[in-house]
Amino acid sequence: MPKSRIRKKADYTPPPSSKQAANIKLTSRGWVAPVMLALFLIGLAWIVVFYVTDTRLPIETLGNWNIVVGFGFIAAGFGVSTQWK
């Protein structure tokens, strides 16, 4: 049986557009990592100081709420980490 001829298809060329592609400039996120790590470390240090000083520091009047403050700093660090790209 004879082989059929293969037709060559024309290469696709997109129609010319009057709009030029807008350059998307991503904002610099260099601040995210240092702030995130700082918040993690502050929260950790807050909790460690609270336990090591036998609940006298960092703020004695807060009592056990110092733990919540420390975890608040850590949670804020996780919140900042969502901005990392």
Q: How would you portray this structure in words?
A:
The protein has 85 residues and is mostly helical. It has helices at residues 32-52, 65-81. Helix 1 runs antiparallel to helix 2. The protein is rod-shaped and about 95 Å long.
For this entry, give a set of tags.
85 residues, mainly alpha
Measured on Cα atoms, how large is the radius of gyration? 29 Å
- Largest sheet entry: none
Q: Give the N-terminus to C-terminus distance in angstroms.
A: 60 Å
Q: Could you tell me the mean pLDDT?
A: 85
Percent helix: 40-55%
User: How many helices does DSSP assign?
Assistant: 2
Written as H for each helix and E for each strand, in order along the chain, the element string is HH
Structural class: mainly alpha
* Shape designation: rod-shaped
Number of strands: 0
Strand content: under 5%
The unreliable regions are none
Summarize this, please?
The chain has 85 residues and is an all-alpha fold. The protein is 45% helix and 0% strand.
SSE blueprint:
Blueprint: H1 32-52, H2 65-81
Helix pairs in contact: 1-2
